[in-house]
Amino acid sequence: MGKAGIAVWRLSGPASGEILDRLSGGRPRPQARRATHRYLVTPEGALLDDGLVLWFPGPASATGEDMVELHLHGSLAVARALPPILSNLGARAAMPGEFTLRGFHHGKMSLLAVEGLAALLDSETEAQRRQAMRTLSGEGSAQVARWRAHLLRARAVLESAIDFPDEEDIPAQIAEEVRPALVALYGELQTALAEAKDARRLREGIEVAIIGPPNAGKSTLLNALLKEDRALVSSLPGTTRDIVSARLEIGGRVVEILDTAGIREATTDDIERAGVERSRDAAARADLVIACSPAGAPPPAIDTDAQILAVATKADEGRAASDPRLAISVHSGANWDRFLTAFTEAVLALGGGGLFAYERQRLLIGEAATAVERILAADLADPELLAEQVRAIGHTLDALTGKIGTEDILGEIFSAFCIGK
Ligand SMILES: Nc1nc2c(ncn2[C@@H]2O[C@H](COP(=O)(O)OP(=O)(O)OP(=O)(O)O)[C@@H](O)[C@H]2O)c(=O)[nH]1
Ligand SMILES: [K+]
Ligand SMILES: [Mg+2]
């Protein structure tokens, strides 16, 4: 509850219209979808507030049910007075995401669009907003519909083969029509899977680890990127023990940047050794590693599949010329702009074009791809068995859009929503 100029109250369900009538003190119900001025009154007839009210008869409403919106003054007193009155009139407080859940149950949006909405509400950057809007506006569902079309083509052939089993050219027909449809589907599912990692990175943020030997200037680099003294810096090797993480925006992407303990083998200090272990884990897990050591020193050896941005630090100390890496100095500012450009390019190269940014989606697409792969690897002879397998893949894709699904998955998705959405 907070203070605002206007507060919007939303009601959904069959009693909404009647509740509005009671609050309006007998004034006629406004025209559908038309903002109308009303004085609101308590059941005892006392004046409560005045504002705009809207009447959205179902099913043409956000939830698919009758809905009412009250645009009242956003004072704490009004916000405290209204709930008991509403509950006396038969309303109760909505659960997080319950409006969206009801809209989903009434076919107003697919589960993909719901996830798009959740991503939009969470979005911090322009790129995240655009990605979320693509899913919210139905691009994900359209993609799934194209995959379903391949399956339909295959099923049409298989079903006629089942209905007319005497036809002699069934194996040829399967080879000519069913296989190509499944091959096409397989290719598109693989593409979506490959993009899903990028899409998820864009939504959740890209993990970047600064890795290098003690005293390479890693913490200094972190602080310079953040433009604040976030991590301790000192001339003592082994200053950073635990991982220091911070979020920043690079090229419109959310980046989670990790400053790590300097990696060295010969340490007798248990705490430092544990820190080094964490540095290695961070390097292995990261999407991008900024691998640094002072100019003239060997680059750090890092075990990771991540992209690596190699940087020589302390360029001002005079050994930059002999180093093939991009040599920067936070102290003198040398090559700082070039470093930022290279960093931004490396972040943007991690992609972000994909639509399916949630693990739930990736798992289902993977499941469908594996099933298609299994069919293609077997010899496609028995049309009845094939039809059954193709139908099962259709079910997996339906789970993706939420046409079929289980309540616990819905609970997980909707509990992440805020109340009132
Ligand atoms: N000359 C010079 N010194 C630098 C530069 N950047 C950092 N230093 C110095 O190098 C020393 C180590 O810097 P840190 O940022 O603590 O290095 P680190 O890699 O985080 O060190 P650990 O956490 O101990 O692994 C400090 O004395 C810094 O002032 C630079 O660009 N030029
Ligand atoms: K240090
Ligand atoms: Mg440090």
UniProtKB/TrEMBL annotation:
Binds 1 potassium ion per subunit. Residues 207-294 form the G domain. Its cofactor is K(+). The keyword Translocase does not apply. Signal peptide: none annotated. The keyword Nucleotide-binding applies. K(+) binds at residues 215, 234, 236, 239. GTP binds at residues 215-220, 234-240, 259-262. Mg(2+) binds at residues 219, 240. PANTHER family: TRNA MODIFICATION GTPASE GTPBP3, TRNA MODIFICATION GTPASE GTPBP3, MITOCHONDRIAL. Belongs to the TRAFAC class TrmE-Era-EngA-EngB-Septin-like GTPase superfamily. TrmE GTPase family. This is tRNA modification GTPase MnmE.
